[in-house]
Amino acid sequence: MRALEGHKVVHLNSDLRANLYTDVVVQSPNMYTLHFVRALTFFLSQIYIILIKFTEKHDNIFNSKQTCYQNIFNIRFNGSNLMF
Questions:
Q1: Phi, psi of 75 (to 5 degrees)
Q2: DSSP character at residue 28
Q3: Which among 3, 38, 66, 75 counts the fewest CB atoms within 10 Å?
Q4: In this predicted model, what pLDDT tens digit does every residue of 29-69 receive, in sequence order?
Q5: How far apart are the C-alpha atoms of 84 and 79, rounded to whole Å?
């Protein structure tokens, strides 16, 4: 009986070790995937920064066009009524 119980304990421990190894291998990201995610994150952040800089640089152009249209057509963009 003791030999069987000892064998069961060893068997459970080896199963537990195998399960832990499988969990670690499955849950740890692949090195290429990790590099891809980092590269994608960097790429998207650079696009975001470029868009912010473009918007800040050309914001005065958009505002001046809106002011020009307001002066020509007497349009209030924030109001609901448009007066020509």
A1: -105, 135
A2: S
A3: 3
A4: 677 777 888 889 999 999 999 988 888 777 766 666 555 55
A5: 13
